Amino acid sequence: MIISEKFKNKRPIISFEIYPPKREEALRDIDETLKILCELKPDYISVTFGAGGSSNNNKTIALAKKIKDDYGVEPLVHLTCLTYNKNEIDQFLRELQSQGLENILALRGDRNPNIAQKEDFFHASELTTYIKKNGNFCVAGACYPEGHPESPDMVSDITNIKKKVEAGDAFLISQLFFENEMFYNYVEKLRIAGVNVPVTAGIMPVINKAQIEKMVSVCGASLPEKFKRILTKFENNKEALYDAGMAYAVNQVVDLLASDVDGIHLYTMNNPRVARKICESIRNII
User: Fold this and answer.
1) Are 259 and 9 in contact (CB under 8 A)?
2) Using one digit for the tens of pLDDT, what is the confidence trace for 169-220?
3) Catalytic choice (17, 74, 102, 146)
4) Cα separation, 242 vs 222, whole angstroms
5) Dihedral sign, Cα of residue 193, residue 251, residue 36, residue 285
6) How far is Cα 16 from Cα 141, in angstroms, rounded to an integer?
7) Is-catalytic flag, 280?
8) Could you give the CA distance from residue 242 to residue 244 in angstroms, rounded to a whole number?
9) pLDDT tens, residue by residue, 134-144
10) The dihedral of CA 166, 169, 173, 175: what is its sign?
C-alpha cells in the first residue's frame, strides 16, 4: 500500500525505523523486535540502507519483504544515491518492484571518505526525480528541524526541502531532535514556504551517552540544557539513564501527539526493550 494514502485516512501516523543486522543469525533474531513493534500496529516500518555496494543492501530488501509478508506492515525502504550511479539505482528499483515494495525514503546519504562518490546524483531531490520517472513508487524525503549540517542557513535548507517536495516527495520524516518547540517552529517555516505535505517527527529514545554523542556528531542535533543535565546526572548509572532517557522521549511523544503532529517516527536502534517501553507508554493515547 502507498504510505502517503495513510495520511489521508488518519493522523497521527505512527512508524518505526530499524536497520538490517550485519550478521545473518541476527537477521533471524530480529523477529523479537518486529513482534514488539507490530503489537502497536504501526502504519509503516522504515528499513535503513547500506552504502557503497555493501551487502546490507540485499538485507534491506529481505528485511522489508519480511515485514510486509510476515507481519502485514508496510515497509519504507531507505535508498541513498551519493555512492551509486543510475544503473545501480535502476537495478535496485527493479528488485523493489519485483518484490512488491512500493515505498522509498529517498536520501542523498552521508559522505564517507572510504567510499567513492559517483557522478550521477548529488542531491536527494535528484534521486526523487529519477525514481518518479522510472517507477510507480511513493517517495518520502528527510527534513532537518535544525537545518541540514551542510546548509549555510535555514533559508537555504528550506529551499532545498521545497525542491524535494516539488520533485515528488509525498511526505517528510524529520531528523531526530530533543526540543519540540524547535520542531513546531520548523514546520511553521515550511508551511510559510509553501511546503504542505505531512511532516513526521523523528524521535530517538536515548539509553546511553555514547550512543547519543555519536548520533549528534553525525546529524548535528543540539542538546537542550535539561537533556544535558540528565546525561551528566546519570551517565554512570546505566539503568537510571535508561529510565530517564525513556521518560524524556515519552514526554516528547505525548506533547507531539497533544499538538496534533502529522506523525511520530521512532528510531528504535533495533532494541526490543526500547520498543516495548514506548509502545506501552503511548498505547492508549494514539
Assistant:
1) no
2) 999 999 999 999 999 999 999 999 999 999 999 999 888 877 777 777 777 7
3) 17
4) 20
5) negative
6) 15
7) no
8) 6
9) 989 999 999 99
10) negative
